[in-house]
C-alpha cells in the first residue's frame, strides 16, 4: 500500500525520472535540498506568466492579485507552524538569513558578559552569527556538549543555563547526525532561566509536524528549499511581542511608514523586517509546497521515512567497515557514516557513478566532525519519495566502493 502510494508520489517529481551516468537517479541528498513537485514548479511559472507585479504598492489589478497571493502564502505558513498571528511570519531568504536577522536585531540588546548558549551539534549558520554578535556586543558564547550517540547532554545543558544566559539557539533536527532535540523541554528550561530561544528548524519542517505554540519557542527559522519549495525563500517566526520590540535590521522600501530626512517611522509587523522587493514567486510557491506536504500528510511522511531509516540503519550496522555517526534514540531521516579505509569523497564518487546522490563532507558542522574525530562523513538523507529499493542501490554502491578501494 505504502509502496504504491510512494510510486504515485514519485510521479509528481519530474527530476526523479532523469538518469545520471546512464543510471536512474537515486536522490539521497535531501538534507541539502529536496526536489520539487510539479505543482511547485508550475506555481512559480504561473506567477511569472500570469501574475507578475510588485506587491504592497500598486493599485492596479496585477499588483493587488500578486499581493493577495503572497499574503495568502503567509497565511499558509502561519497555519503550517500553528500560530494564529500572521504578523509573526517574516519572509526571509532562508534559515541563514532568519538567524542573522535575530542576531543583528534582537542582538542589539545584548551587553558585555551576557551569554548565548548553543549546542555542539549546530550547523555553521547557527554558530557564526552568534560569534559575530559576541564580537560586536562583548557577549560570551557557551556550547552545550553532545555525547557519543550524538545526543545533547541535558545535564550539561541545564548546568550551562544561568542568570547571564540571554539567548539559547539550538537545532530541532541535526543535519549532520539526524538527532531530534527535545525542544519543548529545552525551551521550558531556558525560559525558567530567563532566556529567549531560537530554534533552527531547517531540517525539521520537512520531517516532523511543528507547532510553535506547543514548543513555546520565541523564534523558529526554516528554509523553503528543504521543504519541497524554491530556494531563496524562508521564514522567521517570532513571537509578536518580541518582534515588535526589536529594531529593524535592513532599511529600504516597504519597511517604512513615513520617511523624511529628519526622521523615519517604521511599518507594522511583519513588514518592518521585510525591506525591499521580496522573492514574491518564491513565497507563493512555498505556499504551494506546504499545501503539497499537507496533502501527503506529515505523519505519513514521517512514518515512511522512519521505516526507510530503520531499514538502512539495520543493514548498514551489519556491514563490516562501516561506522555510523549519530545513533541517537530519537532520530529522523539521516544516515551519516564513514567507510573504513575509504575517504568519504571517494565513496561519494563511486556512489555518483551508480546514480546515487549523497552528501560527503563536514555538512557545515565542523564541530560535530571534530567530536567524532573524522574530517568528513557520507550522508544519505531521505525524503517522502525515497524507496527501499533505492536504499538497496545505496548499500550495493557502498560495497562497490569497499571493493574498489579496499
Ligand atoms: N541549519 C541547518 C540544521 C541546516 O541543515 C541548514 C542547511 N544545510 C541550515 C541551517 C542553513 O539553511 P540555508 O542554507 O537554507 O539558509
TrEMBL record:
It catalyses: (sulfur carrier)-H + L-cysteine = (sulfur carrier)-SH + L-alanine. Its EC number is 2.8.1.7. It is an enzyme of class 2 (transferase). Gene3D superfamilies: Aspartate Aminotransferase, domain 1, Type I PLP-dependent aspartate aminotransferase-like (Major domain). One of its GO terms (molecular function) is cysteine desulfurase activity. Its cofactor is pyridoxal 5'-phosphate. Pfam families: Aminotran_5. Keywords: Pyridoxal phosphate, Transferase. Residues 26-394 form the Aminotransferase class V domain. InterPro entries: Aminotrans_V_dom, Aminotrans_V_PyrdxlP_BS, Cys_dSase_SufS, Cysteine_dSase, PyrdxlP-dep_Trfase, PyrdxlP-dep_Trfase_major, PyrdxlP-dep_Trfase_small. SUPFAM superfamilies: PLP-dependent transferases. The keyword Thylakoid does not apply. Catalyzes the removal of elemental sulfur and selenium atoms from L-cysteine, L-cystine, L-selenocysteine, and L-selenocystine to produce L-alanine. NCBIfam families: sufS. Belongs to the class-V pyridoxal-phosphate-dependent aminotransferase family. Csd subfamily. PANTHER family: CYSTEINE DESULFURASE, CYSTEINE DESULFURASE 1, CHLOROPLASTIC. This is Cysteine desulfurase.
